């Protein structure tokens, strides 16, 4: 049985076009159609790092992201924002849109990833892959029940000196989600591993416990 060379060329070109389209257009179309934009102005007083400043953050929120997770990402931003952007700025990435990105990252001026930050309970494989791409990897597990997850991956990832894990513990009576608004003015104070986040109407205390 013979094949038509022109038919094969047509299907090859079609596959190439589809691959190019998905790489260049699908993500932006999805973001434009589904993202909800939130804006936050963070007034930070990080006494542990002697870092003080005001930071404006824009969040393109995925439809599946909860209020609590989005606010946790803002808290993680405040906990990691650098004092200088000479080696690149910390940004909220698009992990829920693109599996090839974390929740937050910091890239230097050449595009190399200096800091890869996950929010949630990622698998060991994802953290090890991230450590091969970035100089430093942090993971913030915000669920109250992390013992099983950490027991499974903790001994393995702790052997990698570039991976640091944190447990984010929020008081049950006042979750971070009470602070959620489309436009937010947040005061964040960090001292001795504790974080206080307030907006003038509510105040939430969060404990950050390093796991390794």
What this model shows, in words?
There is one protein chain. By secondary structure, the chain is of the alpha/beta class. The protein is built from 4 helices and 10 strands. The protein has helices spanning about 5-35, 65-80, 125-135, 145-155; strands spanning about 35-45, 50-60, 90, 105, 115-120, 135-140, 165-170, 185-190, 195-200, 205-210. A 10-stranded mixed beta sheet has the order 2-1-8-9-10-7-6-5-4-3, sandwiched between helices. The mean pLDDT is about 85.
Quaternary structure state of the chains depicted: single chain
Give me the CATH superfamily of the largest domain: Restriction endonuclease-like alpha-beta roll domain
How would you spell out the order of helices and strands?
HEEHEEEHEHEEEE
Low-confidence stretches: none
Summarize the structure.
This protein is an alpha/beta fold. Helices cover 31% and strands 35% of the residues.
Write the SSE topology.
Layout: H1 5-34, E1 36-46, E2 51-61, H2 67-80, E3 90-92, E4 104-107, E5 113-119, H3 124-133, E6 134-141, H4 147-157, E7 163-170, E8 183-191, E9 194-198, E10 203-210
Parallel strand pairs: 1-8, 5-6, 6-7
Antiparallel strand pairs: 1-2, 3-4, 4-5, 7-10, 8-9, 9-10
